[in-house]
Amino acid sequence: MVPHVDVFKCTGCGICVRDCPEGIIGLVKEKAAILGDLCVECGICAFVCPFVAIVNELPNGSYETGNIMHLSKR
């Protein structure tokens, strides 16, 4: 469930870059870019994105945002 960045929603604020524990997110042309091969799929980037620009793709092809994922674990 590697996160996907919606470049239309991403503002390049850098919060995901700052909070990624693996340090595998950077900004390319002022948009978040994730090194998918190195991602450990922790979901922190999706959770901290205030613009819901990072989502996790589920095996069935649907998407889950960080806020929904966080609430489902409570």
Structure, described:
It is a single chain. The chain is globular, with a radius of gyration of 11 Å. Strands 1-4-5 form a 3-stranded antiparallel β-sheet. A two-stranded antiparallel ribbon has the order 2-3. A hairpin with a 2-residue loop joins strand 2 and strand 3. Helices cover 23% and strands 24% of the residues. The chain is of the alpha+beta class. It has a single domain (3-72), classed as Alpha-Beta Plaits, CATH 3.30.70.20.
DSSP strand content:
15-25%
Instruction: Give the spatial strand order of the biggest sheet.
Output: 1-4-5
Distance between the termini: 20 Å
**Main sheet attributes: strand count, strand direction, barrel closure:** 3 strands, antiparallel
Q: In brief, what are we looking at here?
A:
The protein has 74 residues and is an alpha+beta fold.
Topology, pairings included?
Layout: E1 3-5, H1 15-19, E2 25-28, E3 31-34, H2 44-48, E4 54-57, E5 63-65, H3 66-72
Antiparallel strand pairs: 1-4, 2-3, 4-5
